Structures are given as structure tokens and as C-alpha cells.
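Record minuted for completeness.

…
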Amino acid sequence: MTTRRDILRGGLAATAGLAAGTAARAEGDPLITELQDWNHVLGDGVDANPYGMPSRHEAHVKRRSVEWLTADPVSSVNFTPLHELDGIITPNGLCFERHHGGVADIEPAKHRLMINGLVDTPLVFTMQDLMRFPRENRVYFLECAANSGMEWRGAQLNGCQFTHGMIHNVMYTGVPLRLILEEAGVKTNGKWIMPEGADAAAMTRSIPIEKAMDDCLVAFKMNGEALRPEQGYPLRLVVPGWEGNMWIKWLRRIEVGDQPWHHREETSKYTDLLENGTARRFTWEMDAKSVITNPSPQAPILHSKGPTVLTGVAWSGRGTIPRVDVTIDGGKNWHEARMSGPSFDKSMHRFYYDFDWDGTPLLLQSRAHDSTGYVQPTKEELRQFRGVNSIYHNNGIQTWYVNEKGIAENVEIS
């Protein structure tokens, strides 16, 4: 009869064998047998870098742009290096940027937030005034509506940083917007708000009052420190689960009205042009989406056949992600991934799939399920409904082809 002790003994023997094999390969390695500089030379003291920075060996981990994508870097975008990250929190210095008029340089002591329009008492708040309101901490993703937009007509950009990198996920600290609006007193016919940015573009969007009174924040910190200038310092709007252009940065004014304003960014932009020439408007919520970040074109498999870790992120503007399926053979067989880490509403979720790679080519895909029962569609399913004219709200399943050398590229399969 096999006992629990036999099983444990067998497992320990296998582990020891693996360790011995690794040690045999490392035998004689001068990086083990000889002292390195860092083993016997004193390093920098505690005040050498008063604001901590990543290791110089991680200098390649950075936001990147696509030069031909926009005519001018002032109204442009760069991308989060998703393939270099793990967990669910995006470091502040790696959160993608999207600007319509460049980064505003604002002195917080001179910054003001005005509430006007259909309110009982128009008000102006200083930053110190806002600090006296009750505040909350919430972890949310922020995704540009155009994320993956270049993939509508087929595989274009080779790397998940460029196909899916217009997204980040951080903890925001701020004041619930409803408290500020209640302070001014919204009139009964106040059905919409129009937040406005203090940057040169004076970015504006129309937002229904129901959303404003629900979960929106007026935020001044992200991941515990002040907003970065490129993320709206000193004040931005947080509109959980909705497209990123509504999260007005450098927030200076909120007007309350009785109907949407139909400004430029919600008419000529951020609408979805359909095949028949009509357009979907007010497509605010971001649908469930996922992407495998490793292996991927910028993160090839660097080892030979054997144990391999596949990982990625999933998110939904309508709730949480209780499940992600992955396939390594282009959809012939699907496997439920292992979810790891916290599951917050309207936040990124991290998933893993551990498998033994036999060295043959792979076709990798992930498919997210959100808490409403929605299942992430294929790109072809999206095109059958929406055509290929749009550049917004592409949440189709992404495919990476990995060859026998572990090198990955962006492909589509039918």
C-alpha cells in the first residue's frame, strides 16, 4: 500500500533530482565560484537617491510611442510596457500617456475647481478646500477607447505594449464627486455634467448625472503619491469602467446641465462608425478584455522545452473577472487559467497558466469572462456586428504565434 510518507518521499526525491541537475549545469560557473564587484565593494549610501528609481539594469522598461501614429507628440499617446509587468498595479512612471494639448504645468496653490451651471450655489474650491472632504481609495483600470484600435483590419503592431498598452491600473485617492456636487446643490433638472480640463486643449466630455453621483472620484493621488503631471496633476476626474477620455485631467471646472453638450470629443471623436455609415454614440463602458503578456512578441520564451509560465491581464468596465480561459493551440482546446491576486471591481486581474512546452509552435489566446456573464468575443465576431471602420472599443481576442525557437508575433487565425 502506498502511504502519504511514500508520496512525500517520492516528491522530495524528484525535487532533489531537479536541483542536482541544475547544480550540475552550474558547476564551475565563475559567477558562482568567483567574487563579483558587488560582493566586496561598498555601494551608495541611503541618500544617494532621495527619490528611489528602478535599477539601471531595468532601463529598457519604459513607455514607448509609435512615431508614425500621430502627426505631433503634443497630441499623441505612448504605451504601458505590459509585457514587463506582473501583478495588477502599474507603477506611476510606466502609466501610458494620452494628451490632446501636451502636459499642463500647474502650480497647485493657484489651481481652482469651479462647480457651476444648474446648481443652487456656484462654488470654487482650492486644493486645500478639497482636502477637507472625506476621501476614498479605489483601484481601477483606465483604458483609452482606442486601445487595440489599430487591429480592427488585421494584425498590425508586434507587441502587447503597442496592441494593448493604452491602459494602466492604479490605486486612486480622492473625494467622491457626489460630495462636491451635493455641496453646490444640483437642481432637479440637472441631468448631465461637463468636466473641463485646464490644459491647452480644454478637454471636455458629457457625463450623465447618475454616473457622477455613483462611483466617480475627484482624485489627487495615485498609488499613494501625488498624481504625475502627465496624469493630471494636481487634480483629475476618475470615471470607473468608462473610456479614458472621460477621465478629465487637470480638472478645473464641472458644469451641470440638462442635456449633453455634444462637444468635439463626443461627436467627431470617440464615436463608433458602423458599416452602414451610422455611428454608435455614448459607448462609455469598456467591455471585458484580456491579453497574454508573456509569452508575447516583446517577451519570447527564452528557455528550452519544459515547464513554462503563461501570464496576462484581464479587465471589464462592468465588474470583476472571475474567469479567464487560455488556449495554446489556437482554440482547439481551452483551459481555465489560474487567477491570482485581488479581484476588484473595474480593475485589472492577473491570470496564469502553467504548462509543459514540448518545443512545438504555439497559438496563444486568452478569453475573459466578466461578473455579468459577458464573454470576450473574437475579432471576427466584432467585425460581423461593427464592420472595420471604427478605431474604438476593440476588445477582440488577441492571438500570438510562437515558433519552435520561442519567438512570438502578432497574427490572426480564422
